[in-house]
Write a structure and sequence with these properties.
The structure holds 2 protein chains of 2 kinds. Helix content of chain A is 28%, strand content 33%. Chain A is an alpha+beta fold. Chain A has 3 domains: 50 residues, no CATH class; 109 residues, Phage tail protein beta-alpha-beta fold (3-Layer(bab) Sandwich); 180 residues, Jelly Rolls. Chain A has an 18-stranded mixed β-sheet that branches. Chain A has a 3-stranded mixed β-sheet with strand order 20-23-22, covered by helices on one side. Chain B is mainly alpha-helical. Chain B has 2 domains: 96 residues; 55 residues, Winged helix-like DNA-binding domain superfamily/Winged helix DNA-binding domain (Arc Repressor Mutant, subunit A), CATH 1.10.10. Helices cover 72% and strands 0% of the residues of chain B. The termini of chain B are far apart. The chains are: A alpha+beta, B mainly alpha. At the A-B interface, helix 1, helix 2, helix 3, helix 4 and helix 5 of A face helix 1, helix 2, helix 5 and helix 8 of B.
C-alpha cells in the first residue's frame, strides 16, 4: 500500500457532521464531492461513514464519558511502575531466559564480530581511609598497620580483629570500592560485608560495648551479620535504616538508582525510612523497596537469587528498567549512557547474564531481542530503539 | 515555554475531560473490549504526565492524543501477537503529529463535536432530540410522554437541527475562512 497520508481539508469535519444530519447545503455538497473524487481513499472514508449512525456513535462516546474519572489516571501513576513492568517482562522474561540459557550452554563460541570497544575496566585501587587521615591501598597483599589496628589484606578481603584490649580506641574507617570490582570486609564482630562495585562503607575498627553496632553504606553490599542479640546491628543508608539481629541480607543503596532495596536471605530485619516514620519487618525471601520519587516503602516476595547474583559474577535483572540495567553495567565497564529515544528507559528486562570481559558481549544479549540498538562512541553508549 | 507543574497537570486534566470518551471510542476500532480501550487511553495520559509532554497548540495536543492511543492499541495487539506484520507496517507509516492518524480518528472527532453540540442544546430541545434520534421514538409518543402537541415536537426538532447547525459553526470556526460555504 502506497497511499500517502491524506491531508484532511480543514472544513472536512464540518461537512461530515452536516452530511450526517442531512444538513449539507449545495456548495458544501459540491466541495465534499470534489474532495471525494480526488482519491479512492477519500471514498473509502465515506463508505466507513455510511456504515455508522451518528446517534449511536455519540451514545457510545457518552457511555465512556460517564465512566471518566481523573482519579483513575492519578492512581495509575502511583501504581504504574509495577503494572507496566509485568507486562513487558512477560515478553522479556521468556527471551531473556532463552538468552541466558544460550549464554550458559553455548558459551564461548569464538565470535568473529566487530572489534571490542569497551572492555571491563582495570579497576582503580580499593582504598581504606582512616579517621587519622591516612589512606591505604588494599590491592596489594600484606599487612597494614594503621594507628590503632593491624590489618591483613589479601587483595580481595580485609579482616578486622576483635578488640584485644578493653580500652583500645575506636577509630572510624572508610573502604572505597571503585567501579569494576568487588571487595570483602570482615568487621571486628566477624560480620562479613561484601561490597559491590562503586560502593563506600563507613565503619569503626571496633564496636563499642553496650552500644548498637552501627555502620553506613552507599552503594550495594551483601551482609552476613554475626549474631549478637545484645548488640543490635544497624546499617544506615541515605534513605533507609536496616536493623538486624543475626542474619544475611543484601542492601542496594546507590545514589543514582530509582530505588533502594533490602533483600532478606535469612533471619529477620526491620527496615525503616530515615525519619523513622515508616517501618516494615522482613522475613526471608522478602524485599523492601524504597521508591525515591514516591518516598514509600513497598514489600514483596522475591526470588532472592536475582539480588545476590552479583557475588557470582553475574548481572541479574528482574523486571528491571533499562535505565537501571545500564547504570549497573556502567559500574563494571565505566561508560556514560545516552538514550536516543527516552521511552526505552522504561523497557524492563528479566534474566541473568554472565559478567563478560567486554561490554559488547553483554549488549549482544539485548541486541538479540531486536528492540534496541547500541552504538559506542568513546566512552558513551548511545541506546536507540530499533525502528 | 515553562509551565508550572500544577498548571501542566490541570491542562492535561482538561484535555482528559474533553477527549476521554472519543479516545475510548476510537480505541475500540482496534481493541474491541471496552475495558482494554479505557486502560490504554488512561495509560496514554499517565505517560504524558510522566514525560511532561509539552504541546505547542490545542490541535497538537489533540492529534498527539489520537496518535498515541493508536500506537498504544497497536502495541497492545502486537503483544497479543495479532497481525504482527500488518501492525509493524502500519506503525512505520505514521508521520509526526501533524494531523489525525486515520479516518477513524477523524470520525471520532466528528462524533465528539456532534455530541458536544447536542449537549449544548437548550434542555427541552435536547430532551426531544434525544427521544427522537437516540431512542427512536416517533413524534406522537414524544408528544404524549411530554404532554405537548405534535406540532411543538416538530417545531422543537426543527429548532434543534437549526441550533445544531449553528453550534457546529462555533465548533469549526475555520469555516468562516471559506465564506462560500454558508450563505
Amino acid at each position: 500500500m502506497t497511499i500517502d497520508i491524506m491531508r484532511y481539508p480543514e472544513e472536512l469535519e464540518l461537512w461530515i457532521a452536516l452530511y450526517l444530519q442531512g444538513n449539507l447545503d449545495e456548495p458544501q455538497k459540491q466541495k465534499l464531492q470534489d474532495w471525494l473524487n480526488q482519491n479512492p481513499a477519500h471514498m473509502e472514508l465515506l463508505g466507513k461513514l455510511q456504515k455508522k449512525t451518528w446517534q449511536k456513535e455519540i451514545q457510545q462516546i457518552a457511555l465512556f464519558d460517564q465512566k471518566r474519572n481523573w482519579q483513575d489516571v492519578m492512581k495509575r501513576i502511583a501504581r504504574r511502575h509495577r503494572v507496566i513492568l509485568i507486562q513487558r517482562a512477560s515478553i522479556a522474561a521468556c527471551i531473556a531466559t532463552l538468552v541466558c540459557l544460550s549464554c550458559l550452554f553455548f558459551l564461548p563460541e569464538s565470535q568473529q564480530q566487530e572489534p571490542v570497544t569497551i572492555a571491563r575496566i582495570h579497576p582503580h585501587e580499593v582504598k581504606l581511609n582512616t579517621a587519622s587521615g591516612m589512606s591505604y591501598s588494599l590491592d596489594s597483599t600484606g599487612k597494614i598497620m594503621t594507628k590503632e589496628t593491624l590489618l591483613k589484606s589479601n587483595g580481595k578481603e580485609l579482616k578486622f580483629k576483635p578488640r584485644q584490649q578493653a580500652n583500645a580506641k575506636v577509630e572510624w574507617n572508610t573502604v572505597i570500592v571503585p567501579r569494576g570490582t568487588t571487595y570483602k570486609v570482615e568487621l571486628s564482630d566477624q560480620t562479613e560485608v561484601t561490597l559491590n562495585a562503586e560502593s563506600v562503607l563507613h565503619f569503626p575498627n571496633y564496636f563499642e560495648k553496650d552500644k548498637k553496632r552501627e555502620i553506613w553504606l552507599t552503594g550495594e553490599a551483601y551482609f552476613n551479620v554475626a549474631q549478637d542479640t545484645t548488640h543490635p546491628f544497624v546499617v544506615h543508608s541515605k534513605h533507609l535504616n536496616v536493623k538486624v539481629l543475626g542474619t544475611k541480607f543484601n542492601l542496594m543503596a546507590y545514589e543514582e538508582a530509582d530505588k533502594q532495596q533490602v533483600t532478606l536471605i535469612q533471619g529477620k530485619v526491620k527496615v525503616e525510612n530515615e525519619q523513622g516514620t515508616e517501618e516494615v519487618i522482613l522475613t526471608p525471601e522478602m524485599q523492601a523497596s524504597f521508591d525515591k520519587k514516591l518516598r514509600t516503602i513497598d514489600c514483596k516476595k522475591v526470588n532472592t537469587s536475582y539480588y545476590t547474583a552479583w557475588q557470582q559474577d553475574l548481572f541479574a535483572f528482574r523486571e528491571t528498567p533499562l535505565r537501571e540495567v545500564m547504570r549497573t553495567l556502567a559500574q563494571w565497564y565505566d561508560f556514560e549512557v545516552f538514550f536516543q529515544n527516552p521511552e526505552v528507559q522504561d523497557f524492563t528486562y528479566t534474566g541473568k547474564i554472565k559478567r563478560y570481559e567486554t561490554l559488547n558481549e553483554v549488549l549482544e544479549n539485548f541486541r538479540e531481542m531486536n528492540e534496541l540498538e547500541f552504538s559506542i562512541r568513546d566512552k558513551t553508549v548511545v541506546v536507540s530503539k530499533v525502528s | 515555554m515553562a509551565v508550572s507543574k500544577t498548571n501542566f497537570i490541570k491542562n492535561i486534566e482538561e484535555a482528559y475531560k474533553k477527549y476521554y470518551g472519543s479516545l475510548c471510542y476510537y480505541a475500540q476500532n482496534y481493541v474491541q473490549d471496552a475495558e482494554t480501550a479505557q486502560d490504554l487511553v488512561q495509560d496514554v495520559f499517565v505517560r504524558i504526565i510522566e514525560t511532561r509532554q509539552n504541546f505547542e497548540s490545542p490541535l497538537h495536543c489533540r492529534n498527539f492524543l489520537y496518535l498515541s492511543v493508536k500506537n498504544a492499541c497497536l502495541n497492545h495487539l502486537d503483544k497479543e501477537n495479532v497481525k504482527k506484520q500488518y501492525i509493524r507496517q502500519a506503525q512505520k507509516e505514521i508521520k509526526e503529529e501533524e494531523e489525525l492518524p486515520d479516518d477513524e480518528a477523524l470520525l471520532a472527532e466528528v462524533f465528539r463535536k456532534l455530541k458536544q453540540a447536542v449537549d449544548k442544546l437548550p434542555t427541552e430541545c435536547r430532551k426531544i432530540f434525544h427521544m427522537s434520534y437516540f431512542e427512536n421514538q416517533d413524534n406522537e409518543t414524544i408528544a404524549r410522554q411530554l404532554s405537548i402537541s405534535i406540532n411543538t415536537v416538530r417545531a422543537q426538532k426543527a429548532r434543534g437541527k437549526q441550533l445544531l447547525r449553528e453550534k457546529l459553526k462555533d465548533l469549526y470556526p475555520l469555516i468562516f475562512i471559506f465564506p462560500g460555504l454558508f450563505q
